[in-house]
Amino acid sequence: MFEQPTAVFLMNLVQDVNILRPLLFMAARSFQFRILILVSPKFADRDLFGTWRRELEVFRDQLDAEVITYESDFDAFRKLKGYGIIFAGSESSLPGHSTTHSIFQYAPPTFLKVTLQHGFECVGFRHSPAHDRAHGNSVSFGADIVCAWQPAELQPSLAISQRPKVHVTGPTAVLQQFQEPFDRSGDEPGIVCENLHSVRLNATGDLKNEFVDAFAEFCRLLARGRREVVLRPHPGGQYVLKNKVGLPPNAKINNAPMYRVDLRRFAYGISAPSSVLIDMLLAGIPTAVWRDQHGVVGTDNYAGLTSVSTPQEWFEFSRQAAADPRPFVEMQREFLAKQQMPIDPTDVFTRFEKIFRAATHLNVPAGGSLVPDKRFLLVANAHLPTVRVCLERPLAPLVHSGELMIELLTETQLHAQQGASGRDGARHWLESKLDRFAPDAIIFSRYSGPFGSEIVAWARRKRIPVVYQLDDDLLSVPRSLGDRKYAYHNAPERLESVRNLLTTADLVYASTQRLRDRLLEYGSELPVVAGPINCSGRVIRRPVNAAARTFGYMASTDHLPNLMMVLPAIAEILDRHPHVRFELFGSIPVPKALERFGDRVTKAPVVADYERFLGALADRNWDVGICPLTPTEFNLTKSNNKWVEYTSAGIATVASADMIYDDCCADGCGFLASTIEDWVRFLERLLTDDEGRVAMVQRAQEKLESVYGIEQHRRQILEIVALAEQRATERRAKIEEAA
Fold first, then answer.
1. What is the domain count for the chain?
2. CA separation for the pair 413, 616 (Å, rounded)
């Protein structure tokens, strides 16, 4: 065992060098770690001009570091001797990060594994809409610690299963800022940064050429005043250099590593959406975000900063910034303050210091273990609400305590692998992923995608239980949910996948007794059990004893038929009570019949992250929430999630009778309506009897905590997995006996 701890730095993307550099010096000079730099085989191909290889040679010479290019995951694993810490500047479950992700999964437990957020908009942390479309919202990390720039609540793309790993450090860039004073001459150029390789610029339209053309015209406008501008290619994309884009005479290229560029010496900065914007803000120069003229490029994450589109807007910004930078800089300070991002170098150093200190205590004796007690692999079509609500959220405390590790495998990932390497390549990738993660149980959640048979076969060989969790009858999705969903769920290959999992899983976990009964109609021998809890909750807002003002409905577009069923009752209540408002929350549209009520009928936007959604629901301050369900065969198997969520947010409930809400609304915990007259009567009662409404919510919240609590839900899931394991053992015994 090495007495001196080792700090290992994984270099895969060229931009990793910039992200990891401050920690290299910190590890060697502040904490006396031995330095090992592992360079992936793909790094050299990405380093077009040899810039970053030369930087690695500087690290080798200055820090007495060992720099090794490894040939394979196993080759890298063999270099991990002793104990210490492994840093990755880009690591996740996405195919583009598979090199570092695999090393983290192989790494011995004597190394603390740390992933760094490498950008302000970063996969797995905070996405733009283009990131969501390209990568989904199911990104996970192989790290033990995930170093974030901001608190988890400001990172809407951070999966619930990954949040316990988060340690807010701020960006490493603040540890390598220029400090020495300098004098301005008054004729400093501006700097323009391109991010044209970004997935956000692959949308419909000629966005890349629009940026290039705007830059060329901007240079022409500057040339009138004999002004120059510096163009900086993205270190990873190098778009203008790769594509040999012709530049005007007054544009100069700066392609040096960012830590060698003193941004303070520029009069202003302009960039397409990119983390370099944060570098500009930290340097204190006036900064503008480029956005295409049609608004295709998402810039919402930079709201509050100056934006420019046309060349004339570029020019006007440059003129104003050079004349008086103070208004821009003040606005930018306010933007940074709202981000809750640690940017003081001493503070950021201290936050990373805690990680280095923790790593020095990982010199465990032979036989010691730092691995969790259990590993669950969740398999889903995407990072759907069902995964978050029904599995990740109740299991999160076990993940946080280190007793459980969760990994999410999605159809999106499988399709990406199949597109890159064909079906055989995807199958090989899948087998390797399963072998590396070595789950103790596999839970398919509403899954209807490919490779289900292969995953079950792997589980059979490894003697691992398989659970198929369902909260809808996916074999009978009706057209009333919309043509898109109908076509999606009724595609022959999806129906076949569902049927296969129903018959091969060790246990089918249905959300309700009615769904269990329905599934048994497809085969009386199916191993189906029902859990009494599908959605659990905790009280986040107590009811307020004040005059009622608002009732509402939270739903997606496919719930429009349910809303239309009770529309006459909603309109009658609004006619009778002019002071009352009605609000929709989610993607469901406002029906034309309610437009006559003007601003008394409003719509709150979708909130994708579940925890933020619950907080936003509570912040709506609704007095009453409705749960209408049309009496269809499909709806009869629905779950009582809305009652749980309304109750958590301190909202009284009126729900459809004889559906799923009968039990939760019993004992005065909600009203059950069968007719339009019932809906009008119950809504009016709750909106006029404030004491009665508060009492109902209090009873409902007591039931929520005692019957539908998160702890009870967690126990239920673990019991389901244990039962699946028991059934798998019994099945194997029967097979062996028959043989």
1. 4
2. 30
Are 224 and 292 in the same domain? yes
For the cut 70, the answer to whether the pLDDT of residue 65 exceeds it is: yes
H or E, element range at 276 = helix 276-283
**CATH label of the domain that carries residue 239:** 3.40.50.2000
Clarify whether residues 25 and 49 are in a common domain: yes
pLDDT for the residue numbered 365: 38
Closest CA to 230 of 196, 259, 190, 268: 190
pLDDT in tens, 597-612: 999 999 988 877 777 7
Distance CA 736, CA 727 (A): 14
Domain carrying residue 431: 414-533
How many other CB atoms sit within 10 Å of the CB of residue 62? 13
468 pairs with which residues across the strands? 444, 508
Residue/partner pairs of 734-738 with CB below 8 Å, 24 or more apart: none
Q: Of all helices (H) and strands (E), which one includes residue 470?
A: strand 466-470
User: What pLDDT digit, counting tens, does each position of 362-405 carry?
Assistant: 543 333 333 457 889 999 998 888 998 999 889 988 876 668 88
Listed as own residue / partner, the contacts of 254-261 with beta carbons closer than 8 Å and 24 or more positions apart are 254/191, 254/230, 255/49, 255/51, 256/51, 257/17, 257/18, 257/51, 257/52, 257/55, 258/18, 258/173, 259/18, 259/21, 259/173, 259/176, 261/232
Q: How far is CA 532 from the centre of its chain?
A: 28
Instruction: Report, as an integer, the average pLDDT of 696-702.
Output: 95
Helix (H, G, I), strand (E, B) or coil at 229: strand
Q: At what angle do helices 676-688 and 690-707 cross, to 10 degrees?
A: 100
